[in-house]
Model the fold of this input.
Amino acid sequence: MNRSITIRPVSLSVRDRLLGDRLERLYRTYGPETAGTNDNFRNLLDVVASYTVDPKLSVMGNFDVGKDGDSKWWGVAGYLKYQATDVVAVVPRVEYYDDQNGFSTGIVQKLKEATVTLEIKPASSFMWRIEYRGDFSDQAVFTSDTGAPKSNQQSISFGFLYSFSSKS
Done:
C-alpha cells in the first residue's frame, strides 16, 4: 500500500500594538509549498510598522525576507501619507527588492520603485487616485515601445474606489 502524507504550510499572523501604536502586523509562514513533496520548505517573514505622527502625517515601513529551498529574497518599503486637507492626501512610496536567485521574478535582479499618489476623497464612500510610478532594475527586464529591452519603466494610473459601507 502506498501512502502519502503532505504537510501543509503553517502561518502565523499577529495584528497587535506590540510597540505602543507602532507595530501593525507581523506575519510568518513556514512549510512546504511544492505540490507532492514535503521538501523545499518556504519560510517567509513579513513585518509592517506604522506610526501616526499627527492627524495630518503618518508613516509606514514594511520588511519581507523569504527562503524557499536554496532561493532567497528580501525587500523593504517606506510610505508616507500627508493629509493636506479633509479631501486631499499625498502618498509617496519607495521600495527595494532583491531577488537573489531569481526565484520570484524569474531572473536574478535588484528592483527599485518610487511612486507618488494623489488621493482625492470628496465623500466618505468615494475616492479617486492618480498615481505616477517609476520601476527600476539592474537588469533589462522591461520592454520599450519598440520591443527593445530596458532597465526602467514609468507609468501613470487612475483609480476610482466606491465603498458600500459607511466605515472610513
